[in-house]
Structures are given as structure tokens and as C-alpha cells.
Amino acid sequence: MARTAGESPVALTMRPSVPALGAAIGAMGYVEGRFAHSAELALPTGGAQLLVNLDGDALSSSPLKGAHRRTGGAALHGPYSEPAVIDPAQQQAVLWVAFRPAGVHPFLDAPVSEVRDQLVGLDDLWGTDGAVLRERLLEAVAAGGPRAGLRVLETALTDRARRPLEPDPAVRLAAALLDKGTPVGEVADRLGWTARRLARGCTEHLGFPPKRYARIRRFQRLLGHVNAGHGPPDWALLAANCGYHDQAHLIHEFRAFAGITPTAYAPRSPHERNHVPLGG
């Protein structure tokens, strides 16, 4: 049955069924929906996603500062350090994979920083295998539904792994510590690394230098608190709880990563905190 604009999306979220992929992939799934708004902001999370648009053979992303990016319907959304405008019409039927910190690294021939702030078509990334993947997924979904498509996607990822699927344990620990707000210098000390080695490891495996990654993850902690609360947020209290110097610092960082002020932030839903509708 056709869905109308404004209805809540249909979503399927699951863990990989292939155990080896669990170290690299946090979740994968399928979402479909129709939305009344014509554009929305996608906010940076610090992680990478693989996206396959089953409804049309196109994906696009427009950073608030920078060139518009457009690919075919199967692409890797590298870790973003800034907000981007995306088209809700391209989210009517999507298979997706959300990688764990450093989890996309095994599937690339280059450091993760090479796809930072990029939307890269799988045909450019994986050649012929990437070029035909969307058609294979369309056939699988038509025959067996979204779960069948996700199984095909798992096989494709397993076949494309260029390195061990288990991310570097030191980098994973660094990411976990930075995610909790541990100072960068303390993270380096915990690992027994120099600051330069930490910066090199984070840039290669996470896509960002450690301070940038820490700022993005602090922003995500803030959004988590905002969407978990009831009533208007107490921004001064949130600034103190999330590790900002003061409310002014929080507002500055919010604008840097969302492109809007905290009071203008109105996500699609509390569970979709990184999707902010724009206009009608």
C-alpha cells in the first residue's frame, strides 16, 4: 500500500548475521517513508555509512559550505565533519549499513580520511562489483524482501574486505575514550603513544584527527541528552554536563556541526536526531 507524505517511516534494524562483520558494523537495516518536507539537514556523527537507494538510482549531498555531490544509487557516505543538506525523496526505500568507529577501514584501499566529507559511489570505490551491487540488491529484495537484500549486502562486504575485519584495537580504545570525553593527551598516555602517533592512527582509521573526532562525539552526546529530556532544554546545564566551557561555547560548536542555533534544532523525531527537516 502506498504511503503518504508525513507518515512515520517503516524501519528494519538488525545486527550483521555474519559474525565476522560484527566487529566492523554496528547496525544495518532498511527504511522507507514519505516525507512532507523537501530538504533536511544530516548532522555529522563521526561515522561512515553505506547507502543504497532502491527507489531511484541517485544519491546526493550538499554541504552547507562546499560543492554539491551526486552519485548513483549505491554510495559510501564517508564520516562528515559538517552538516549537509540531503533530499528526503532519496530516502523512500533505502538499505543502509552503519559502521563502527574504524569499521569502514577494512573495506577501503586508502585511509578513511580519503573519504572524509565525501559521498563516493560504489562504482568508483569498488569498480564493477560496486556498479552492479544495486541491481543485485533490487533483485534480492524483490524476491525475498529487505532481509534478503541485507544478506546479499553482507556477502558483498565480506568479499570486499581488504584488511582484517577486526579494527585496530588501540584505535578502537582511543575512539571509546574520546567518545567519553577523555582529553586527547590522556588518551595518548593510556595507549603509550605519542601525540603524533595518535593523530596518525585516528586520521587513518577514524577519518579525523583526535580533537576533531572528540568534538563531533561531544556534539552527539549533547544531542542524546537533548532528545532524552522532557520540556525545553536547559542549555547552560547541558553545557556543563557535556564538557563545554560554557553556554556560549556550546552555541558556537552547535552552529559548527548543525549549521543552526540550538533553539532552531527540531529533529525528525527523538530517534532520528541527526535528521532535521528544512522547509516544507
List the SSEs and their pairings.
Blueprint: E1 10-14, E2 25-32, E3 39-42, E4 49-53, E5 59-63, E6 69-71, E7 74-77, E8 84-86, E9 94-99, E10 119-121, H1 122-126, H2 128-144, H3 146-160, H4 169-179, H5 184-191, H6 195-205, H7 210-228, H8 235-242, H9 247-258, E11 275-278
Antiparallel strand pairs: 1-2, 2-9, 3-8, 3-11, 4-7, 4-9, 5-6, 5-8, 7-10
Helix pairs in contact: 2-3, 4-5, 4-7
**How many DSSP E strands?**
11
Largest sheet: 6 strands, antiparallel
Percent range for β-strand residues: 15-25%
Helix content: 25-40%
Distance from N terminus to C terminus (CA atoms, Å) equals 24 Å
Are there runs of 5+ residues with pLDDT below 50, and where? 1-6
| Mean pLDDT across all amino acids | 93
Number of helical regions:
9
Number of domains: 2
The sequence of SSEs as H and E is EEEEEEEEEEHHHHHHHHHE
Which descriptor suits the 3D outline? globular
**CATH class type of the largest domain:** Mainly Beta
CATH topological fold name of the largest domain: Jelly Rolls
> Which strand order does the major sheet show?
1-2-9-4-7-10
CATH architecture of the largest domain: Sandwich
Supply the helix-strand structural class: alpha+beta
C-alpha Rg, in Å? 19 Å
